[in-house]
Amino acid sequence: MSDPQAISAAVAKLYDTYPFPPDPMLDEPPPGYNWRWNWLAAYNFCTGQKPQKQDIRILDAGCGSGVGTEYLVHLNPQAQVVGIDLSAGTLAVAKERCQRSGANRVEFHNLSLYDVDQIPGKFDFINCVGVLHHLPDPIRGIQSLAAKLAPGGLMHIFVYGELGRWEIKLMQQAIALLQGDKRGDYGDGVQLGRKLFAVLPETNRIVKRERERWSLENQRDECFADMYVHPQEIDYNIETLFELIDASGLEFIGFSNPSYWQLERLLGKDSRVMERAKQLSDRQLYRLIELLDPEVTHYEFFLGRPPLPKPDWSSDNTLLAAIPERNPCMDGWPSQCLFNYDYQIVKLSQTEFEFIQACDRNQTRTVAEILTEVQLGVEEVRSLLEQQLILLTKQVSR
């Protein structure tokens, strides 16, 4: 299938048949958080400081059944949110989902990413998860979105990685071969794919990968269809990923799962090999990491449109003059043992806990003012900042 309009129609048909994601609807705000959808936490991650404004416009580009859209509304209480999607059937689910949970600061449009210019104005934050890799022309798609990003804005993107999805690609092609003229009958594709997994030997590599990684979520036909019978998919590696990023004309800020991209976790035991690796560019290092640990099923990252000021907190005077507040993405607060923005367990000392409590009590005091009553060192405050447990607002003058 090479006709872009035919591809788009086939993709819309898939999601009309199997609205995705198939998460259950709730009559209340969804539980927990994804910090990448929280403007304060995401902006802090990208720039090292709290954003100057919260009354922003957010675009959920390819919103599907509204799972992410719903979070974007509830996690950003001052934002106006717009969701677009190619599938009218899936959009109907998104509208009902947001209506039921009270996510009422959102409007939906039945549009492809290519036609986002039909929506007036710019957006401060664009979320595009699991969409670009299903377009016949992802470069055109990312360029359409980039044109809608306001100066100082951020874009969060998620696309598939080829190395960790190799077995998925093999099964996709096997199902397509066996479907023949029935390709495009997604119900038939799901039934056929499930039969293949049932009859293949347990030692089969594709079966083993499915059981290790995907089988729990793929109990739902919507997930199985999205993974194995999708009519259009482009998987990336670091080299092709940065071709896509460069085509956007935006600044690459970084991957939102930075721990995976630390070479020390793979080669840190040998300083001589690490010295060799230091001669590589950042992109070559990323490529080396994914080659040595080919588990990359997807890439998630932030792009930005300058100006995106990034303050330097290395000066004690600058740090002490800043106004701190607690990162809004914490689970278990108030407690010394909690989950941080990335759902990793953090154990706070008593004085760290008291400092963050003081940030909560009064969000106009500087670090220096809080430290007059909490016995915490400046370096310990800097550590809280590096762990993204607190956000700082730089003070020009007081």
Question: Can you give a write-up of this model?
Answer:
This protein has 398 residues and is an alpha/beta fold. The protein folds into three domains: 4-162 and 235-304, Rossmann fold (3-Layer(aba) Sandwich); 166-228, no CATH class; 316-393. The chain has 17 helices and eleven strands. It has a seven-stranded mixed beta sheet with strand order 3-2-1-4-5-7-6, covered by helices on one side. Strand 4, helix 5 and strand 5 (149-160) form a beta-alpha-beta unit. Helix 7 packs across helix 9 (221-228). The longest helix has 14 residues, at 4-17. The chain is globular, with a radius of gyration of 23 Å. The relative contact order is 0.12. The mean pLDDT is 97.
Outline of the structure:
With 398 residues, the protein is α/β, with parallel strands linked by helices.
CATH architecture of the largest domain: 3-Layer(aba) Sandwich
- Uncertain runs: none
The overall average pLDDT, rounded, is 97
Spatial arrangement of strands, main beta sheet: 3-2-1-4-5-7-6
Instruction: Please report the total strand number as a whole number.
Output: 11
Kindly report the name of the CATH homologous superfamily of the largest domain. Answer: Vaccinia Virus protein VP39
Radius of gyration: 23 Å
SSE string, helices as H and strands as E: HHEHEHEEHEHHHHHEHHHEHEEEHHHE
Q: State the major sheet.
A: 7 strands, mixed
**CATH topology label of the largest domain:** Rossmann fold
Number of domains: 3
| Number of DSSP helical runs | 17
CATH class of the largest domain: Alpha Beta
Name the beta content range: 15-25%
Helix content: 40-55%
Shape: globular
Class per helix and strand makeup: alpha/beta
Terminal CA distance reads: 63 Å
